[in-house]
């Protein structure tokens, strides 16, 4: 259900460390020089997790069309635990974000089924987005670098000020999504909320990524643009 957020937040210890790692490669540098490249290849378990998140979103939508919101709620509860279990199986640790999503799904989904009121499971998306938005905005205060820089600086090079703006943009965007979700869930029907959750959020994320890409290209070194 929160697959864009999970993909962005999945920053492994290997990506945050700067020491030499097993499997790092020697790469040619011009002309005829060698340098040690300590960047590890992207963890393969990310592909599995992204696939599971997509399948969970599809299962949520299809189960809603088939049996309604309460069946979809049960699917989200089971699916969130499954994503967490696969994450633990691949990394042998409980990553904070999948754990938070699973706990919220079980609590709010359980209340939804117990009280037969879908408003609680609808709130899950807002809570997750707000938590992550606040985490991004607070990250410069919790370390030397904002979260987005720690997640992406091994892939792209940007000025310090641009990293700060990028982190701020993502934080505000997630706060906006969470707030927009509250408006939709109280102003429209469950059918409309489902369409917003499945299609609307994806469209907003795509537009945001396109705008952000054009912004970043302006500030990237020439060699990173190719």
Report how far apart the termini are. 33 Å
Strand content: under 5%
Inertia-based shape: globular
Q: Into which percent range does the helicity of residues fall? A: over 70%
> Biggest sheet, open or closed, and with what strands and sense?
2 strands, antiparallel
Q: N-to-C SSE series?
A: HHEEHHHHHHH
Class from helix and strand fractions: mainly alpha
State mean pLDDT (0 to 100 scale): 79
Q: Strands of the largest sheet, in order across it?
A: 1-2
What is the alpha-carbon Rg in Å?
Answer: 20 Å
Q: Unreliable runs, pLDDT <50, ≥5 residues?
A: 9-44
List keywords for this structure.
about 230 residues; mainly alpha; two-stranded antiparallel ribbon; 9 helices
Structural features, described:
- With 226 residues, this protein is mainly alpha-helical.
- Helices cover 73% and strands 4% of the residues.
- The longest helix has 30 residues, at 190-219.
- The two termini are 33 Å apart.
- The model is unreliable at 9-44 (pLDDT under 50).
Ordered list of secondary-structure elements with their pairings:
Blueprint (H helix, E strand, L loop, with lengths): L2 H7 L3 H4 L8 E5 L3 E5 L7 H23 L1 H23 L4 H20 L3 H24 L4 H6 L7 H28 L2 H30 L7
Antiparallel strand pairs: 1-2
Helix pairs in contact: 3-4, 4-5, 5-6, 6-8, 8-9
Question: What's the short story on this structure?
Answer:
The protein is mainly alpha-helical.
